[in-house]
Structures are given as structure tokens and as C-alpha cells.
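INTERNAL TRANSFER SHEET
From: sequence group
To: structure group
Subject: ABC transporter substrate-binding protein

Please process the attached sequence and return the structure record in the designated field. Keep the field labels unchanged so the import script can parse them.
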Amino acid sequence: MKSGLNKVTAALLAAGLAFSVQAADITIAYDADPVSMDPHEQLSGATMEMSHLLFDPLVRWTKDFQFEARLAEKWERIDENTLRFHLRQGVKFHSGNELTADDVVWTFQRLKESPDFKAIFEPFSAASKVDDHTVDLVTKGPFPLVLNTATYLFPMDSKFYSGTTDDGKNKGEVVKHGSSFASTHPSGTGPFKLKFRQQGVKVEYERNADYWDQNSPGNVDKMTLVPIKEDATRVAALLAGDVDFIKPVSPNDHARVEAANDVKLVTEAGTRIITFQLNQERFEPFQDVRVRQAVNYAINQDGIVKRIMRGFGTTAGQQAPAGYVGHNPELTPRYDLDKAKQLMEEAGYKDGFKISMIAPNNRYVNDYRIAEAVKAMLARINIEVDLKTLPVAQYWPEFDKCAADMLMIGWHSDTEDTANFSEFLTMTRNEETGRGQYNCGHYSNPELDALIESANLETDGGKRELMLQRAEKILYDDAAFVPLHWQNLAWGARNNVAAEPVVNAMDFPYLGDLVIE
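Return from structure group:
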């Protein structure tokens, strides 16, 4: 063990991991572990990665954003509102129960009730069983993103999750930030089974010996995830040989990993937008568009990317990254400190005001450093920021309560489509439909809402792109939120870890296919 690694040693000893790596076993250090083993409790990258370990979707994205058959081995269009999926036969859940169409229907109904996922499935009217291994997904009207959405349908073991616990609670209940049967008792069809979990310490997975995908190249028998929040400590663990794979690697540490022996840096261009929301319900001055515009003009996105991200990101003036249908090339970052001061004076706030701000400190690359930089930038227009940063396990409950005047959130489109950003981040909050579930800015614009809903029914690609571009322009003019940058992705791995084939721009590597050479 190298000297000066007391934090690494403490973290690994607490997890029972130090000096325990064996052939075909792997230890991964992440910035944070998943908040739950329930695939429908929290819509986040950590949840998606866990879902691909313990469960399987009907279809999944490839690295080049094509659709790959998974639990659905094929599909066919029945009519303009119906897509029929044919399930693989002989697939078993970890409990031993066999996957059938009943599980898909049960899971679909649960997704329609999940606070975080129901907005994604709002365009669908039903999942209908045709026979034991055939299911129809039926939309309310023509919908261009059925397969995109099917990547979020991870069939759950309906028999396993049916009934009640010993204390009378529904085993299938979705509980946000609470203890439930589903949050601690997974039964999926995935390449790994849950062996042990102590939140904040470690999660242990073991290979599913009965996994249906015999063509998977994955040869990892045991996978242990240990959270190490500090960027430098995580890298030190990799360089010392105490862990095999880390995520993420901060831009500040790229050169350190690239220069080291026996390890490598693996990168991908990313499409996750990092933003700040301006809570109009909690802080009245943010209801004034001039104040929201002033905040946008005061923040130097280019400076953040150059200095804090070390160039490892792309400055943003909108939600949609280049390449997405709906990206509007006219919308660029608008840093202008004099303009920001002018707008504050016009709005009657020349002397500024004080606001609260929250941000995670182990969720996005350099998240707390970015928050500190934004705090300093806002001070130049006399906005005093009371900043609080939190580990992600404590951050999400606070965010879900919209418990600050400015709040950081990053978002990768769940459907690899521009409309999804607005569906969750900027459409009017609606508990019934799930629209605006993560809109803690409480921004509300009926014109935007109507545009997104119409775009989701438009099958003409050209018309749909113009509608989504118009939506981005509305958000830009309204300064509905503060776009910062699209975050690129970096992992560190030992040279014998074949990370390149399994990492992807979605930021949830398919670790079931991971090969240790």
C-alpha cells in the first residue's frame, strides 16, 4: 500500500474489501451507490445501472444508439397505436419463477403508478396480454418513441412482489425514500443476483448461474461496488490496485490516470445537461423574467468548462445537445455581466438579495466545485448565496421537496429524445401525469406544455423537429432555468478490465457483459 492512502484504506476496510480482489472478481469504486434496489423508485443513472445488473429490459440501446433485443426477442407493428412484443421463452427470475406476459403487464401498470416513471409511460393506454409470451403495448395515439420507452420496461417478478409482508405492507408498493419490500428484495432476470447490501458501505452482486443470455461474454463471478465520494481518493484506490474500475474520473485527474502504469482512462462524449433551477414558488423575485435572465447572463458557462471541467464538457444554452432532434443551433450561452447588472436594476434589485442553493457533492462531475463557482459569479450582481452541498443519498430527498431557491440537477434524456428533458424538467408540474416531476423551478408555460404534447404525437420527423426547436426557444427567452454544460464521461480501469465495450453515453455501463482478461 502506498503511503498517504489512509482514506482509501479506511473506505475499503469498512467495506471489507482491502486486498481481496481475485480472478474473475471485480471491485468498483463509484461516487455514490444506488438509493434503492427498486427499479421504479428513483429515476436516476444509478438506478438504471442497477436495473441492468439485476433485471433486463424488453430492449436496450447499443453503443451507437440502435435497438438490441433483450427479453423481447422480436416485435412487430400491428396498427398505428399497437406494437406487439414476443418474449423469450424459458427465462427465469432469480426466485425461480418463469417470465411471462403477466409480469410485463404487471410491471407496466406499476410504472404507470410510479411518481418518477409515469410521465415516461403517459402516452401509453395499455399493456395487453395476447398469450403467455406475447404482449401488446398500446398508445393513446400515434407515438414515435415506443421502442425508446421500452428500454425502460424491466419486467419484475409479479408473483414474487405480490401479496403482503409479515407486517401487512404491499410487497409491490413504490415508496420514495423509504423502506419497502421492493427496495430491499429484488427478483429480476438479470446477469447478477444481489448478495449483500449495506447502503453507503458496499453492494455485492454474484453471477446468476441461470442467466438466459448464454451469449453474453461477461465472466465476472462476483462484483462489489463501494462508494468513495472524494475524486482524488477514488483515483488513488485505482492506482494503488485496491479497486479495478472507477467512476467517474474528475477532469482534474485525467492526466494522473493516463500517466500511470497498468491502468487506463476510458472516455465517452456525453449528453447529460447540468443545470440550475430557479424556484419561482419559493422565491418570488424569480417570477420576474428579468431576474431569471440576469442570473443566466451572470453565469460564465465557458469559464466553468475551461477552468473547472478542464475542457471536458460542452457549454450549453439549451437542454438538447447537438445531434438530438430539436437541438436549436441559434441558442448559445449568453454570459454578459453588464447586461446582468442592467436587468437586475430594471427589475428593482440593483442591491441584490439573498438566496439558498443546494447541490450534490458526489453525483455529477465536479458538482460542488461548479456550485461554488456559480455562487461567486452571482455575487458580482449582488446575489448572496447560502450554499449547502450534500451527498446524493441526502440530496435527492431535499430536491424532491424543492427545498431551496436554486437547485442543481443533471439530466440525461431517458428516451434519447429532446422532449424528455421538458417532460421532467420544464413542463408544468402535474402529479397525476408525472409531467414536471423534477421541475423544482415550478416554471409553467401552457404554450410549452402544448408543444411538447403535440410533438409526442407527431410522426413526421421534420415537423416534430421544428416543434421541439420552438420549445427550446421558448425556454431560452423565458430563462426558465440555467443551462451550464453537457457533461462528458470518464472511467478509470485496470488494463485487464475490458471496459471499452460496455461503457456508453447513457452513463450506465452494461456490466453484465464485462470481461476481465
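Handover comment: The CA atoms of residues 46 and 427 lie 24 Å apart. Residues 461-478 form the longest helix (18 residues).
Transfer complete.
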